[in-house]
Write a structure and sequence with these properties.
Oligomer: single chain
Shape: elongated
Distance between the termini: 25 Å
Helix content: over 70%
Largest sheet: none
Structural class: mainly alpha
Order of helices and strands: HHHHHH
Strand content: under 5%
Number of domains: 1
Number of helices: 6
C-alpha cells in the first residue's frame, strides 16, 4: 500500500515536472529571439561599414583576414562566427515556428543552442500549464513516470499467496 502511494506521489511530481517543458521551450524561444535580434544588429552594422568602403561583406571579411595586424585577423574570424551563429539561430527559430506546438519540444531537444539554453535555464520560472501542450506533456510525464516506477518497484512487491480453500 505504501509503495502505491509513493508511486502516485512520484508520478504526480514527474507529471508536474514534464508539464514545464513547454514553458521552458517558450522562455527559450524568447531568449533565442533576443539573441537573433542582437546578432542581426551587429551584422547589419558590419555590412554598413563594408558598404561605406564600397565592399561586399565577403570582401570586407577577406580584407580584415588578410591584414597583417593580428587584431584585424581576429576581428575577421569573430565576425565570420557571428554571421554563422546568426544564421544557425535564425534557422532554429524558423524550425521551431514551423514545427508547431508539440514539434517545438523536439526541435528544442535536437537543436538547442547551449549558450541560449543555459541562460534560459538560469532565469527559468515555472508556470501553470494552461496550454494543451502543457497539459498533454504533464499527463505523459505522469503516465510514463508512473509506469517506470511500477516496473522498478515490481521486484520488491510481496506476492499474494493463493488462499487455501
Amino acid at each position: 500500500m505504501i509503495v502505491r502511494r509513493l508511486i502516485l506521489a512520484l508520478s504526480l511530481f514527474l507529471g508536474a515536472l514534464a508539464s514545464q517543458l513547454p514553458e521552458f521551450a517558450q522562455q527559450y524561444r524568447q531568449r533565442l529571439g533576443g539573441a537573433i535580434d542582437e546578432l542581426q544588429r551587429i551584422v547589419a552594422q558590419f555590412d554598413r561599414d563594408a558598404q561605406g568602403e564600397q565592399l561586399t561583406r565577403d570582401a570586407a571579411l577577406d580584407r580584415l583576414g588578410a591584414n597583417v595586424d593580428p587584431l584585424a585577423q581576429k576581428r575577421a574570424a569573430d565576425m565570420r562566427e557571428t554571421i554563422a551563429r546568426e544564421a544557425r539561430l535564425s534557422q532554429q527559430q524558423q524550425a521551431m515556428t514551423d514545427a508547431g506546438a508539440f514539434g517545438r519540444l523536439g526541435a528544442l531537444a535536437t537543436n538547442a543552442d547551449p549558450g541560449v539554453a543555459q541562460r534560459a535555464w538560469q532565469d527559468f520560472e515555472p508556470a501553470i500549464p494552461a496550454t494543451a501542450e502543457g497539459l498533454v506533456t504533464g499527463a505523459v510525464g505522469f503516465l510514463v513516470g508512473g509506469g517506470l516506477l511500477r516496473l522498478l518497484a515490481a521486484p520488491f512487491r510481496r506476492r499474494r499467496r493463493p488462499s487455501e480453500a
